[in-house]
Amino acid sequence: MTESQPSVLADESEQRRLAAKARRENAQLADPFDRSTPRDVWQEVQQDNREGSRALVAFADNGDRINIPAVDFFEAVPREDVCRIYVRGLNGEDRPHALGANMLEIAASLNELTRGYRPVVFVGASLGAFWAMLLGTLASADVVFVVNPVCSLEVGILDEAGKEAWVKPAQNLPDKWRDAYGDMRTLWERHQPPPVLGYYASGLHQYAVQAALMVDLPNVQLKSVEAHAPMAALAESGELHSVVSALLFPGPGGLGHLQRRRQDADN
Question: Residue 235's pLDDT is what?
């Protein structure tokens, strides 16, 4: 009996590993708001629970994820009384999108989708964080929550970061678009910046380079963490739920001056 025990434990460990792998694969293929339904990759905007009084808008990275599968993210954050919106398929070439033909049209559409909700929180990770910050600025989000954010699509900075998957799309950006929107620092010199809160993996060079561009900006609060996959760690620990809850359900006066951004946008 004792001799066979290691084999039994090994079998159980393998079963758990396979079950975890299947769950990850199923999550990647699932609808953002319903694990039992296959995702529709051609649907560029999905909205859930329009009856909520506050809004959470999440932007996909170039892998149609939020560093973790979208369904895992939305299951890890508050759902009650929250209108949830998932945006995928954005790029910097002004290719027509379901929300509009260019950045200003997309921002106007997001303002319409989130009109009347308080507060409006934009979320993104990696390249999704770039879109969350860019459109959070143009669409007057109350606050932007980011993980491993990309602050700049300037080719020289991307070369320094050493992330090849970011370089080719950036090289294809029209100069006019890159000058207008390609770097949050210059964008925020021309537009009122939203408060940006979040985390980055200090041990991953590509994200440390990007974070270094942002950490000293007055509207940014970024915390370095040792985990190489901070979004997954936040979701598994429950901290993601706590952080997003605090942004969506602030105490009296908790958003204070931030509310005026939405009032200006709604008017």
Answer: 95
**What is the C-alpha R_g of the chain?**
19
Query: Cα(228)–Cα(259) distance, rounded to whole angstroms?
Result: 34
Rounded CA gap, 148 and 264, in Å?
29
* pLDDT exceeds cutoff 80 at 124: yes
Confidence band for 18, pLDDT divided at 50, 70 and 90: low
State the Cα–Cα distance between residues 253 and 267, nearest whole angstrom. Answer: 21
Burial (CB count <10 Å: 0-12, 13-18, 19+), residue 196: buried
Cα–Cα nearest to 180, from 195, 172, 166, 191? 191
More confident residue, 139 or 160: 139
100-113 pLDDT, tens digit per residue, is 999 999 999 999 99
Q: How far apart are CA 57 and CA 124, in angstroms?
A: 9
Beta-bridged to residue 196, according to DSSP, are 144, 220
**Unique residue bearing structure tokens 């299947």:** 22
Q: Which long-range contacts (CB under 8 A, 24 or more apart) does 234-242 make?
A: 234/76, 234/147, 234/199, 235/68, 235/72, 235/73, 235/76, 238/76, 240/73, 240/76, 240/77, 241/76, 241/77, 241/78
Sheet strand arrangement including 120-125? 45-48, 82-87, 54-59, 120-125, 143-147, 196-201, 220-225
Rounded Cα distance between 119 and 174, Å, is 34
* Residue 258, pLDDT score: 44
Q: How confident is the model at residue 1 (pLDDT cuts 50, 70, 90)?
A: very low
Give residues with Cβ within 8 angstroms of 251, minimum separation 6. none
* Other Cβ atoms within 10 Å of 212 Cβ, number: 13
DSSP 8-state symbol, 256: G
